[in-house]
Amino acid sequence: MNKVVLIMAILMWISTAIQAQESIIRDIDYRYLDTLIALAKKNYPRLKVMQEEEAISKSAYNTSKLTYLDMFNGSYIYRPRNRPAVSELNPYFINGYQVSVGVNLAGLIRKPSSVRQAKRSYRIAQLETERFEAELESDVRSAYYSYLQSINMLKLRTQYAQDSKITFDRVQNQFERGEAPVDAYTIARSELSEANSSVIQAEINYLNAKDGLELLIGVKLDSIN
Predict the structure, then answer these.
(1) Crossing angle between the packed helical segments 45-66 and 105-176, to the nearest 10 degrees
(2) Residue 101, strand partner residues
(3) CA-CA distances (angstroms) from residue 216 to 44, 105, 130, 137?
(4) Which of 19, 36, 73, 123 would you call most buried, defined as having the most Cβ atoms within 10 angstroms of its Cβ?
(5) Mind listing the pLDDT tens digit for each residue in 124-168?
(6) C-alpha 130 chain-centroid distance
(7) Rg of the chain in Å (alpha carbons)
(8) What is the mean pLDDT of residues 2-9?
(9) Where is the signal peptide (predicted)?
């Protein structure tokens, strides 16, 4: 009879566990999740590096457009007007200010290509940042769901351990009075030991899930209002 009671208790716990797992979606707080994602995008070191790389690429692209002027060079000379246009000291036909402009044709030809390359590099940096942000957002969502699951399982296994303790105490009292066989006592004790072990494992899973989520968002969960 005691074996039947134990088996029924186990089946009831399994049924409760299935229902709890099916209802985890109701525990999701999407506003809280959005806060976690925003914190990750603000604090995650790798994303900061990629944003800096994107800024460098943007600066290089803007600079490349401005350096078109480097293809041109100018100079001027001045010859006094009160001297003859042609003499040994002033062998020029024209006096006054004289301006000259030079063009680096090779550089002028190459420049559009280098500007386009800088623009492509900047665009690649933008796309890489966008891709990483999307991946980071997905990682935060996954970590949050795992965190919720770990809380759910910890509560579930804690409740099961408490129920197992009640069952064990009852069977132990019956066994001590000679009202329960030794195998029923052994099963109850084994079930309690397994339940306690599952609580410890659930606690470890909870701590790992919490640490993993905090690593992504860069702050402690307890500090979030």
Answers:
(1) 170
(2) 74
(3) 6, 52, 17, 10
(4) 36
(5) 999 999 999 999 999 999 999 999 999 999 999 999 999 999 999
(6) 12
(7) 39
(8) 51
(9) 1-20
Mean pLDDT across the chain, nearest whole number?
81
pTM of the predicted protein model: 0.71
pLDDT single digits (tens) 51-63:
999 999 988 888 8
Q: How many CB atoms lie within 10 A of CB 106?
A: 9
Do 210 and 150 meet the contact criterion of CB atoms below 8 Å apart?
A: yes
Q: Is the dihedral of CA 154, 159, 163, 166 positive or negative?
A: positive
The b-or-e profile of 75-103 (16+ CB within 10 A means b, else e) is: eeeeeeeeeeeeeeeeeeeeeeeeeeeee
